Structures are given as structure tokens and as C-alpha cells.
Amino acid sequence: MPPSPSSRLAYIDWMRGLACVLMFQTHCYDAWLSPEARKSTFFMWSQLGGTLPAPLFLFLAGVSFALVVDKLRLKNVPAGQIARTTIRRGAEIFALGLLFRLQEYALAWGWAPWSDLFRVDILNTIGVSMMLMGIVCWIILGFGQERLVHRVRLVLGFSAVSVGLAISLVTPLLWTTWRPRWLPWPLESYIDGVHNLGQPQSWIFPIFPWTAFAFIGLATGLFLASDWAKKNGGSTIALGAMGGLLIYLAKWLDARPEQLYPVYDFWHTSPNFFLIRVGLLLLILAAAYVWCRWGAGQWGFSPLIQLGQTSLLVYWVHIEFVYGKFSILTKRAQDIRTASLGLLAISLSMVLLSVLRTRLKSRSAA
User: Omega into 53 within 30° of 0, i.e. cis?
Assistant: First the structure.
């Protein structure tokens, strides 16, 4: 029996909620733990878990983007209108990212450097990714929709995978030997995350490699929207199996003595690490599908699904209470136990905020 529309959306929201929780723990421990606590194995694992939220958010943005594009396409909406709709939404997210940076700078007035206004954060990258995906869909649909007929999803999906892999493959060069140093740093930062520090930074979210996750999500969403996937519940589980194969392939490639790049940085720019994270995303997708369809994912109230439905809001708000002026704990001064209690407080508060937002939205729509 194919999953109901609600369950299909539920496991996407559940994954987005998982990304929120992983983000909370990453930010809380990073902001609050003392220098001594930061030397612990616990902190190492916490930060390793912190490599997943950004890929999850971008991947899921791509999945949601695909579902929107497919829905509009099936309604025979012209390619130009689909492009305008999706690119406009991407521009809105990008503008929100700029507004968020302006808010953070204003709240930290007096000690925040002016360069913070131009930091490339995850919202900026999601917005840019959506605009780029809109352009790719516009090109494919505008020049080939009539000729492709029933193969539109396949061609769009193949194009999305190709763009994603190309972004990943060129990233090591754009961070090193091909760096566009001739660009002003606020623009170069969108390419390699250099900010104003002279070297690419791992805590910035430039187009290369981060947008690649959105394009892989676009391809995944198009597959999930296909008639075959809708009729076969095991299709999502098959994606999980593919994820396992990608992880194995990436580890095998990384073990080869031959190197394609003059500078190889596994944890930040390596295409092999990109493939491993894509494999993990597909495994999480399959696990979320199983949990929400056959497990306890939708038994009563689900905090993760709730957070996933308001992920932008909880992202926006929690930052100020963790890193900002209104941090609930003294930064860089806590042991693991105290920081964990703070994490619990932040998580519960964000769930409550999410519930209030949903209820207010429901009342206004009634």
C-alpha cells in the first residue's frame, strides 16, 4: 500500500526536525562549553554530529523544491512561471538571510565587527541554491518539456545530479589553486567562504560545496514524486540502500593512492566526504520513512515533526539565546552537564515556540 500524502510529508518534516535538534546540540555545546570541556571526546562527537544539519537543510530544501516544481508542472503551468515562482521564493529566503545578519549585527552593536553583515550563512546559501535550481529547471522545462513528454522528471533528475557532482568536483580547486582572488571578499565568500580572513573558512556556507546538497535533494525529490515511487513504498528504502553503496564507494575512492587535486582536504572540500554525507542523507531519509510509516514517528504528538514544520522560525530565534546577547548561559564557561541542561531548555522552548506558531497560524487561517 503506498503511503498517504500526509505520511509522505511527515517523514520530510521529521528529517527537518532532526536537523533542528542536531543544530541545537552543535550550537549549544560550541557556544557554552569551557576550553577544558572542549578537549573531551564528547565535544568531538558533538561537533562531528554538527556536520549533518547544514546538508540536511539544503538536501530537504531541494526535495521540497522538487515537489513544488513537479506539482506546478503537472498543472501545466508554463516553464517561465514555474521559474519565476521558485526563483522568487529563493530570493525571499536570501533576503531573510540578509535581514538575519542585520538583526544580529544590530543586537550586538558595539562589539560585533562590520564584516559580520556580509557573512555567508546557511539561509543565504539556501536562497541562492533555490534560485540556481530554478534556473536549471527553467532551462530544462523551457527548451525540452514538449519533446521530453514523460521523461521530464528523468532528465531534470539527471541534470540535478550532474550539477551537484560538478559543484562537488570543482570545490577543492576553487578553495585552493583556482580561488577567485580578483573578486571583492564579500563576493568571493559566496564561492569559497573566504570571508575577510584571507583563507576559506570551514564555518562559512559558500555555494561550493554546499549548494551541491540541494541539487542532490532536487533529484531525490523528483524520484519520490514519480509514479513508480508513489506506488512502491520500498522505493525510499531503495534510496537508503543506494546511500550505503555511496558510502562504501567514497571510502574505497578515498583509500586510492592516486589523487586528483594538488591540495586534498577530506573534511572540508573532498568529493569523497561529499559522497559519504549524501549516503548518510539517503540512509536517514529511508530510516525516517520507515519510522514515520511503520514505527512510532506519528504516534500522537511528534516534537521532531513539529520542529520541522517551523524550522526557519526556530533557527532564527535559538541563535540569539545560544550565541547572542541573550544567551541563557555564560559562553565558553560551562561543563558538559550544565551545557546539556541548557540544551534541554533550548530544545523544549523551541518546541513550545513552534506549537504556538502553528496554533496562531491555524487561527488566522480559520
Answer: no
Q: Alpha helix (H) ranges present in the chain?
A: 5-32, 41-49, 53-74, 79-107, 122-148, 152-174, 185-192, 207-225, 227-231, 234-254, 271-293, 303-309, 311-322, 336-365
Using only C-alpha atoms, what is the Rg of the chain? 21
Of 125, 286, 302, 315, the residue nearest 220 (C-alpha): 286
Q: What pTM value is reported for the model? A: 0.94
Q: How far apart are CA 43 and CA 296, in angstroms?
A: 30
76's grid cell: 501545466
What is the separation, in whole angstroms, between the first and last Cα of the chain? 33
- pLDDT per residue over 74-107, tens digit each? 888 888 999 999 999 999 999 999 999 999 999 8
How many Cα neighbours within 13 Å face the side chain of 125? 28
3-state secondary structure of 284: helix
User: 3-state class of 33 per DSSP?
Assistant: strand
Bridge partners for 271 per DSSP: none
